[in-house]
Amino acid sequence: MAMVGDAISHAVLPGIVIAFLLTGSRDSVPMLIGAGLLGVLTTFLIEFFHRYARVQADASIGVTFTWLFAIGIILISVFAGQVDLDQDCVLYGEIAYVPLDLWITEGGLSLGPGTVWTLAFVTILILLFITFGYKELFLTAFDPGFAAAIGISTTAWYYSLMTAVSLTTVASFESVGAILVVALLVAPPATAYLLTDKFKNMLLLSVLAGIIASVAGYYLAVWIDGSIAGAIATVTGIEFTLAFLFSPSRGILLKRKQLQPVQH
Amino acid sequence: MILQVDNPVVEVHDLTVSYDRKPVLWGIDLTLPAGALVGVIGPNGAGKSTMIKAMMDLLPVGSGYVRIFDKPIDEVRNRISYVPQRESVDWDFPASVFDVVLMGSYGKLGLFKRPRKADKDAAMEALNKVGMQAFADRQISQLSGGQQQRVFLARALAQDADIYFMDEPFAGVDIATETAIIELLRTMREQGKTVIVVHHDLQSANEYFDWVVLLNMRLVASGPTEHILTQELLEQTYGGKLTVLTKVGELLRKQEFPSREAK
């Protein structure tokens, strides 16, 4: 599942380029739609190769996203003259430029960085999705067989979740790049998983871990005068390592004894 | 011997299921009576799990159809429940025992609705029935095999369905759990529910079920237990497998000299 997020974050590239070529603008909405469609197509292709061609899930993921990402790169290089996109920027992002890309209304009023508005909008959408779909997402993730038996469509929820992942990915990677998106998609939840046994706490802790990594990563980058995205990804790795070593329930150093002797 | 019944709760007609173009179930024609404890028995790879999954339309079906309560399955989803094999889920998933049992109410709640007080009470009562109320807040990763099975059973009970499909509920559980489960299944039968159980132990089958389905890719037999668990039909089901023949001999011997009295 974690690797599907990785795959989506790369595979949406052709969607973004095609949306750009069709509309000729770097407006966020067509890009979100183009990338969202490609994200769903990616999950569909992964499932398709896995189920009907009987390729292993990891191989199916590997084939699908490298191929789609390559198409995106080719599109960028062929239309290089017309496309205001750049491979490095796609991979690494440049968060330092976000404050420069202001959303200025026709009246000349500056509303701050455009990306912040896009991301805020997507965050609200995702929060609504998780709040209203909580029990279905929880059940289909834990026991899809039971969910299907009692009439909850696992396919519909799986693709909705993957659409949500695509949206999040696309909205974020304009500012942070594909690699930091993956770091933030996978590392904070993995850290939270080591720290708690409760699903709701895990959701909250992943958000907290992500925020801490972003803030700490920013100051780390300022301090060492390096890449902000790189520093943030590094902090997510440090958080995971700390949780792995020192988690009270699953950490390898402080593991609580799970089986207490029976008292007679 | 395949006995068909009038007004069946489950009607399977000409069901064929294949994996990768290789058939695992061939032309199953089966009817099951209401209010029975049904055992589905057969050797490994006979398609027992596949059959109950196909009955619930969880697998693509090659041909044939299934009707439950004389309706297509999608119209009666809220009346059926399923206890999957224990190994089919990840028990390290961050959830508590109570979270899992509460899932039993999800089907009836419908989209966007949260479980209410009544659903939580029903979940707690179901835990009580399987003797696990003290474990409500326990993490599912800390349960033993028998406890995991009881949790799955409690989830099905919380659902209050009319027909239950159970995939190997007795596999790898302790004897206390096995006794507790069979007691519950008998209570459910007395309430008029139909319970269909995939089972692998011939010895206990005789004692547990009042209707038995013998399966080995094809339907070998279906009918009341005493007519079905005969040496001839068991040999047809298990073929000439040596180890199994020994078990059959053992079973027949136990039939003459029952080691366990029915409770």
Automatic annotation (TrEMBL), chain B:
Superkingdom of the organism of origin: Bacteria
Domain ABC transporter: 10-242
Cited Pfam families: ABC_tran
CDD domains in the record: ABC_Metallic_Cations
A single MF term (Gene Ontology): ATP hydrolysis activity
SUPFAM superfamilies named in the record: P-loop containing nucleoside triphosphate hydrolases
Keywords assigned: ATP-binding, Nucleotide-binding, Transport
Stored SMART domains: AAA
PROSITE patterns linked: ABC_TRANSPORTER_1, ABC_TRANSPORTER_2
Family of this protein: Belongs to the ABC transporter superfamily.
The protein, known as: Metal ABC transporter ATP-binding protein
